[in-house]
DNA sequence: TTACAGACTGACTAGTCGGTCTGTAAATAT
DNA sequence: ATATTTACAGACCGACTAGTCAGTCTGTAA
């Protein structure tokens, strides 16, 4: 049986994603999770702390999922990274929207800036290691551009375009990087 | 002399960008603009309406600034578009952050979805017209990819990377598209 | 049986929110 | 000169907010 603290975190994640952090009251969370307010403040010191715990957990699982496979040729690693990220993206749109929301909502952005920086730096680092095996002189620029391409497609996919050609753009990127 | 309605819009834009829509109260806006609540609700029916008016105004000025120059070769138009967008981006970071915030904050996203769709469609349309003059068979895919590259670089620049190599990536994109 | 930890409850506080209302002064029309 | 509309002020309202607190319940170990 699931303990109530985990339930609170799960429910809060869903509500933050659906309604936004500011529009979700602690009372909302309590009601949806079927627990009392006292319990929430027994496990967490503040509403902010719930959010931080969510972000730390998800950062951990994101880095875990995107860790590189060092014994393959770098081109394969890039392709796998692309496939992996886009598959996560399709599988959990709401979660990626939540992340964009948190990163650009001034209040939450300040609250999480440290974690966000860590997450970005970790991704850049692991991509740069791959590009070091392809073109060490330009690996920094190529890494930033690689990340920007993926982020851009993700952003546009998550924004409002109807019938966004995600699959076509994914294939485009895979073809570009598999023979770089 | 500036009328008070414009002052309210200017002040509200700044506060929404700095603090976020939800964390900015109507009283905050009144105080910062030096007007009363009665005035604000004389000119606007709701807080939401202030936001909508801001978004409509900025959409208009954005489309105005990025309208294409039809008598030039398409490659030049692409380069000019890149230079134009990145120069706006550097000039008014806060404003672009506000847009991302509004687009991914569930409450404001719903409120503005119509305007957001219009804006995206207009940009896609004008980019596609350029690519039609380069490679009509692939113009849709190339347009989406072009927009994604610019959006991705912008997104990463606005997020949390320190010392983001915006200039280098801008040059990279210009070189890529000037001889496409 | 007793003693204790800590998970849990829900009423409560102090304050903020968007929005409304009444009133007034100035501008415009008649 | 008088009537009507417009622009504005600020007191006020009820709903909602994050967070607190005194006390209850349950399980476990002595």
UniProtKB/TrEMBL annotation, chains A, B:
Family annotation (InterPro entries): DNA-bd_HTH_TetR-type_CS, Homeodomain-like_sf, HTH-type_Tx_Regulator, HTH_TetR
Keywords, sorted A to Z: DNA-binding
DNA-binding interval(s): 25-44
Domain HTH tetR-type stretches: 2-62
Top-level taxon of origin: Bacteria
Any Pfam family: TetR_N
Cross-referenced SUPFAM superfamilies: Homeodomain-like
Cross-referenced Gene3D superfamilies: Tetracycline Repressor, domain 2 (1.10.357.10)
Record protein name field: TetR/AcrR family transcriptional regulator
